[in-house]
Amino acid sequence: MTAHGYAEFHRYYFAEVHKDGLIVDVRYNGGGHVSQLILEKLARQRIGYDISRWGKPDPYPSDSIAGPIVAITNEHAGSDGDIFSHCFKLMNLGTLIGKRTWGGVIGIHPRHSLVDQGKVTQPEYSFWFKDVGWNVENYGTDPDLEVEITPQDWAAGKDPQLEKAIQVILEQLEKNPVALPDFSNRPYLPLPN
């Protein structure tokens, strides 16, 4: 959830935004400060299309998802990873799958340098949310669907959280398939005589 992560999000997002649905993986997220920018992008609701004469329809607003969104989180998502996971649920953007997040949203600012090039930090930023107040700190956010990755899964290279996310989004797409509106009734506006 820093500049590098935000750039990485956009690389993948722009490659996938035209798909019917989206899975966002915030597991092992060590935090940062860009969750609100990512949530703002994911919250865009497609309400129309810009249709050029020769091209295909472009969604309005641009880069909006047509179908469902599922997010995967785990107990190693903390700080801005906690905040993203909590707000994803709070904003009703989709289904949150995985394990309860870490529960550490009091931020630090590494502004005090030491002679040996080290840094000193202190707790500085707390988070309050309209649904739970201060209670994401020291607790985290519960997923909508809890899915464990056992040591046996890990050793076998299996990812039951991702598998569940794929299953859930496919079920949601089957229940509510994405389709373009009927654009055949275009207005005919000739030049006046």
Write up what this structure looks like:
This protein has a four-stranded parallel β-sheet with strand order 1-4-5-10, with helices on both faces. The chain has a single domain (3-175), classed as 2-enoyl-CoA Hydratase, Chain A, domain 1 (Alpha-Beta Complex). The chain has helices spanning 3-16, 35-42, 80-90, 151-155, 160-175, and strands at 22-25, 48-50, 58-60, 69-73, 95-98, 107-108, 112-113, 119-120, 123-125, 145-146. Helix 2 (35-42) runs parallel beside helix 3 (80-90). The chain has 193 residues and is of the alpha/beta class. The model has no long low-confidence stretch (mean pLDDT 93). It has five helices and ten strands, in the order αβαβββαββββββαα. A hairpin with a 7-residue loop joins strand 2 and strand 3.
Briefly, what is this?
The protein is α/β, with parallel strands linked by helices and 193 residues long. It contains 5 helices and 10 strands, in the order αβαβββαββββββαα.
Total beta-strand segments: 10
Number of domains: 1
CATH architecture, by name, is Alpha-Beta Complex
The mean pLDDT is 93
Write the layout of secondary structure elements.
Blueprint: H1 3-16, E1 22-25, H2 35-42, E2 48-50, E3 58-60, E4 69-73, H3 80-90, E5 95-98, E6 107-108, E7 112-113, E8 119-120, E9 123-125, E10 145-146, H4 151-155, H5 160-175
Parallel strand pairs: 1-4, 4-5, 5-10
Antiparallel strand pairs: 2-3, 6-9, 7-8
Helix pairs in contact: 2-3
Features:
193 residues, alpha/beta, 2-enoyl-CoA Hydratase, Chain A, domain 1, four-stranded parallel β-sheet, two-stranded antiparallel sheet, globular
